[in-house]
Amino acid sequence: MPRLVLVASLILTGCASTHVVSTGKNTYLASVRFCGVCTAAVVATQAAADYCAERGQVSTVTNLNTVFGSGAADVQFTCSSAEDQKPSRPDKGTSTIEIK
Fold first, then answer.
1. Residues 76, 23: contact at Cβ < 8 Å?
2. What is the mean pLDDT of the chain?
3. What residues pair up with 66 in beta bridges, in sequence order?
4. 94: helix, coil or strand?
5. To which H or E segment does residue 59 belong?
6. CA distance 69 to 67
7. Tens of pLDDT, residues 15-69
8. Which of 34, 30, 27, 31 is nearest to 13 (CA)?
9. Is the pLDDT of residue 14 over 60?
10. Domain edges within the chain
11. Which of 51, 56, 80, 84 has the fewest C-beta atoms under 10 angstroms from its C-beta?
């Protein structure tokens, strides 16, 4: 009986193999394979976010590759501080519209 429960839970949740590797200076690739009923792109994006969060940073996705129906996705991303994510506009993100 426990074996049946394990097999059923794997079928319902899907199996995902996730790997994060460095591909250059502050550039990483999160690859997800064998994602049954899960959405591989979401799992890979979450892996990227988790990877950066472990380092006290936030992720920025720079490229996303999926093949529909394949259960696989690749997410290229960078990690940076939350401060670097803030807008750098001189008007601090606000604009004035003048009607003449």
1. yes
2. 78
3. 73
4. coil
5. strand 58-67
6. 6
7. 567 889 999 999 999 999 877 667 888 899 999 999 999 999 999 999 999 877 7
8. 34
9. no
10. 14-83
11. 56
How sure is the predictor about 95, in pLDDT bands with cuts at 50, 70 and 90? Answer: low
**Residue holding tokens 């990877």?**
51
DSSP-derived 3-state class of residue 91: coil
- Please give the model's pTM, rounded to 2 decimal places: 0.68
Structure tokens at 78: 């960078």
Residue 91: Cβ-neighbour burial (10 angstroms; 0-12, 13-18, 19+): exposed
Type and span of the H or E element at 18: strand 17-24
Structure tokens at 66: 């999926």
